[in-house]
Every structure is written in structure tokens, then in C-alpha cells.
Amino acid sequence: MVDSSIDLKESYEILNKYPPEKRFTLAILQDVQKQYGFVPRETMNLIAEYLRLPVSEIYSMATFYKALSLKAKGKYIIKVCNGTACHIRGSNALMDEVAEVLDIIPGETTSDGLFSIEIVNCLGACALAPVMVIDDKYYGGMTKEKVKSVIEEYRRAK
Ligand code: FES
User: Fold this and answer.
1) Whose CA is nearest to atom 1 of ligand 1?
2) Whole-Å CA distances, 56 to 15, 37, 45
3) What is the mean pLDDT of each run of 10 residues along the chain (158 residues)?
4) How far is the CA of 141 from the centre of ligand 1 (A)?
5) Domain total for the chain?
6) Is 81 marked as a binding-site residue?
7) How many cofactors are bound and how (predicted)?
8) What are phi and psi of 121, to 5 degrees?
């Protein structure tokens, strides 16, 4: 499990930017997501207190919007494209290999907090299919065989 202890100072700073009104809930949550990369439980409690709303209401909103995440993401986000071109060229096998090497499934984060994996739609680089992206770096013509060594590079760089 990723350590979710966070510095709440930033949470207070975000809340201070908004009047304590319900209509700002989503804007606050978006700022929190941007700040931490996810919406920490402790911050949801603070928002609820500040807006005088039940925590359950903040939680429902945080789970409803896809752009918001309740879990901390890894230091490196590995995206495997499953758009048509990549699918035809074997993105499923690629995804399986990434999942096996990291021992997690898409949407999860490794226990050391280093990697998260996501399946995404076309990344706009179909000529390079199948494509995998780590942070902003594109890996085109990816094969199952290359997965391990690419991931190792990032492990070494941590
Ligand atoms: S389908 Fe994968 S980059 Fe377009």
C-alpha cells in the first residue's frame, strides 16, 4: 500500500481560495487532485468540515468523476495504448506482460509506490503501434520482450 500520509498545509491553502459554499466542491476537488495526484481521505474530511457537508457527499463526488482518483498514483505512470492500431499489433499481450512484471493490474500501483499502470485510448502515435508511454516518453514498436528492460531502467533511476 502506498503511504498516504500527506502534508495538509496545501489542503488548507486550497480551501482558503474558495468561499465555504457547496457549489465550489468540484473546483476544490480538482485543485486537490492537481496538488497531490489524488484526493487524500484526510483532505476529504477537511473539505466536508469546511463546506459543512457530509463526508459521504464529498466521497460520492470524488468517485463519480473520472479525473479524480482516491488512490495515490505511482511515481511513474505506465500507459499502454489499446486503441485500434495498437490493439491489432498486440497491445493486450504487452499489457499482460507489464502487469506480470509489476505484479499489479491496470489501475493499481506497485507497493513500493514506483509504478501505476493504465490502459488508454489512442495516444496519437499509431504509426509506432503498439505504443507504451511512461510519463512523457513514448516507446513505439513495443514488444513483450522489451518490457522488462524498460521497466528496469526506471527502477534503476529511482
Ligand atoms: S492506437 Fe495506439 S497510438 Fe493510436
Assistant:
1) 83
2) 18, 21, 9
3) 68 97 97 91 96 96 89 90 96 96 92 92 96 95 94 90
4) 11
5) 2
6) yes
7) Binds 1 [2Fe-2S] cluster.
8) -85, 175
What's residue 127's pLDDT?
A: 97
CB 150 within 8 A of CB 102: no
Q: What are residue 69's phi and psi, to 5 degrees?
A: -130, 140
Annotated binding residue 86: yes
85 close to ligand 1 (CB < 6 Angstrom) = yes
Range of the domain at 38: 6-62
- Beta partners for 138? 133
CB 54 within 8 A of CB 92: no
Cα of 134 to ligand 1 centre, how many Å?
15
In this structure, the answer to whether residues 150 and 105 fall within a common structural domain is yes
Residues near 30 by Cβ (< 8 Å), separated by ≥ 6?
67, 68
Residue 68 lies in a domain: no
Index of the ligand 1 atom closest to the CA of residue 91 = 2
Same domain, 91 and 139: yes
126 is in an annotated binding site: yes
Same domain, 148 and 116: yes
Q: Which of 116, 122, 115 is nearest to 89 (CA)?
A: 122
Q: Does the Cβ of 129 fall within 6 Å of ligand 1? A: yes
